[in-house]
Amino acid sequence: MTVASNLGFPRIGHRRALKTALEAHWAGKSGEAALLREAAALREAHWRHQHGAGLAHIPSGEFSLYDHVLDTATMLGAVPAGYGWDGGGPVSLATYFALARGNAEKPALEMTKWFDTNYHYLVPLLARDQRFVLTENRPLASFREAASSGLRTRPVLLGPVSFLRLAKTTDGSDPLDLLDALVPVYARILRELAEAGAVMVQIDEPVLALDLPARARDAFARAYGALAKAGPELLLASYFGPIGDNLPTVLGLPVAGLHLDLCRGSLDLGPVLEQARPDLALSLGLVNGRNIWRADLRACLATAQRVAEARDARLLMIAPSCSLLHVPLDLAEETGLPAELAGNLAFAMQKLVEIKLIARGLDEGEAAIAAALDESDAAIAARAASDSVHNKAVASRLAEATDAMTRRRSAFPVRRVAQRSALDLPRFPTTTIGSFPQTTEVRRARAAHAKGAIDDAAYDAAIETWTREAISWQEAIGLDVLVHGEFERNDMVQYFGERLAGFAFTRHGWVQSYGSRCVAPPIIWADVSRPAPMTVRWARFAQSLTEKPVKGMLTGPVTVLQWSFVREDIPRETTCRQIALALRDEVADLEDAGIRVIQIDEPALREGLPLRAAERDAYLAWAVDCFRLSASPVRDATQIHTHMCYADFEDILDAIAALDADVISIEATRSRMALLEAFEKRNYPNEIGPGVWDIHSPRVPEAAEMAALLERAAARLDPDRLWVNPDCGLKTRRWDEVRPALENMVAAARRLRAATHST
Ligand SMILES: Nc1nc2c(c(=O)[nH]1)N[C@@H](CNc1ccc(C(=O)N[C@@H](CCC(=O)N[C@@H](CCC(=O)N[C@@H](CCC(=O)O)C(=O)O)C(=O)O)C(=O)O)cc1)CN2
Ligand SMILES: [Zn+2]
């Protein structure tokens, strides 16, 4: 029988139960036992759902209290000194959370994007002579836990090559040097799983979707040569893109099975059918784990049938393309979606049903699932023909967009002169990135407003109060370019999604971003346009309170695209251009409303970069073009800012320069300004605000620290082009951190002004 299977289930739980449990624990309101009980209850519920959906291979061990890469690191004893681990037994929960979130003595491990998703993992930090020990066989514990509930599961492990490729070493040496030390620990994990009765173990190696050096390919051969002997059958899973040129390596490995992402990596199927050993089991990732559209069941079944004809049909599995971590839990929770859209969607729970249907169709023939196939056909046909999806006005506006619309009126040096006289800023101007703390009070008001418990007038009055307080406080401490604080926004993308035509939004469509932090990505389902101004009301209000410039605050087109669920019937580029044109109108309206500085955030520009180098230039070309399309309608004297964070930017510096923003603020604190070397080398032409406060940590930096960072920056870059700001927005911080930190930041800027004088 064809195996209906899953690679990973969302962890956050119904209505973000895990978030609630974690945050209660961190706040000291519940102990470890309560947290662990809640986590176990979630796992059990998730296994039961999957069992109930008829899946034969149910994953275990992929659940995590914070992040699965951190789980792997702590399981392997890859715990740097100073976090309270004795080097022997299991890693305590306190140590685990200290690694994830930092504590009084130590900063958190670095956090970065999981491939091209909006999920963030903690980067394992390894010593050059790192020793690995099995602190606790986590997948085994999970496998047994499921077994005690009467459920047989398929354990999941992050593979050794991916683990090392995603890690960093303290001295910059290649983590792959540690492979031989690591493999024996993996072998033991697998042996113990086999002894406990695990038949097949899923071992994830998503780095196979990347360009790999020969050294990494050799590492696969070495590692899997040893691991294949450990006991259980190995299902090697790759996802997020084609395995492509890594296929010869993969097909030479002595593994029992191979999972293919047939949504993003469908190109692999032909070569695999031609070249794979006949006894290699194949897991067909047909149901998209990265998007929320319902599967085209007929097309999925046809692909499965094609494989079944070419291969031993007993060795086939039907699966999602990747773990379902990246989609919301349950469409049934959503009652407010447009009816014609809801029929086209599938969240994690619905995807399980699709997987089972495809497997059944393969085993029992089309007739057995005829009704489901008809329903799928009808939904797809209805969408293709829908008048709500296609908007002629949007199409013609896009067709008429010219190259000239992507250019400012004058070059930067000319604009700079105009902006200096218009804005009258001191040297080392100070500013913040946009948001101020989203306090419980702010969120409660929004929740009450959404429920109808308070009316528009009461909600607006509350936002006005917070904005007024924020403006007068910023004036009082002496910031130069102010922000309104973003109190009216739930999330920087969701907020715009809720105001643009072509978007739908969910009530409970949460997806984990990191730890307990979640996002509810809007769904772009139709052509995008802007029915009315989106931010002008609050920008105008804030500007009316002060003589100082208040920044208009927008999320850029690429970031809106990247952090939404996107259409698959038109290219991403086209959707991005539609968003860009809508934002262009917003930029023009802000300028008309008297806003002199407009920030267009693009923190996800780097995240959208294709995983394979060969596709990057094409992406960057349209991404830059879209930003410029949004940013360019304004006069020379109107200053355009952009902001980026959460990524390494070295490899896209040319594109960053090509944005031609007048000012860029960028995360730089953790790297101690190292990033600026790259800006210096490339002679980055415009103004820069390298962050001087790591806002991911509750620590309040001293003025002297920030001044020292600024001096480092001033040594690299023209001091006349430097701005002073935090690394990112302050929505996740508390006011009792923000107040002293920003006062210190202003003091740091003043010190630098006093110490240097204009040349
Ligand atoms: N989309 C997106 N991606 C991003 C970022 C980002 O800002 N946005 N930043 C980077 C890091 N990722 C982050 C992701 C999420 C959050 C974050 O703070 N998320 C919030 C939710 C944000 C939100 O939409 N909040 C809503 C809903 C708030 C809420 O939970 N309301 C309660 C009720 C509140 C109460 O009564 O107290 C409910 O509905 O149950 C609002 O403010 O309105 C959270 O998990 O806590 C921060 C950083 C990279 N990716
Ligand atoms: Zn940011």
TrEMBL record:
The keyword S-adenosyl-L-methionine does not apply. Catalyzes the transfer of a methyl group from 5-methyltetrahydrofolate to homocysteine resulting in methionine formation. L-methionine binds at I433, G434, S435, E486, D601. Binds 1 zinc ion per subunit. The active site is at H696. Pathway: Amino-acid biosynthesis; L-methionine biosynthesis via de novo pathway; L-methionine from L-homocysteine (MetE route): step 1/1. L-homocysteine binds at I433, G434, S435, E486, D601. The keyword Zinc-finger does not apply. This is 5-methyltetrahydropteroyltriglutamate--homocysteine methyltransferase. Zn(2+) binds at H643, C645, E667, C728. Residues 4-310 form the Cobalamin-independent methionine synthase MetE N-terminal domain. SUPFAM superfamilies: UROD/MetE-like. One of its GO terms (biological process) is methylation. It comes from Acidiphilium iwatense. Keywords: Amino-acid biosynthesis, Metal-binding, Methionine biosynthesis, Methyltransferase, Repeat, Transferase, Zinc.
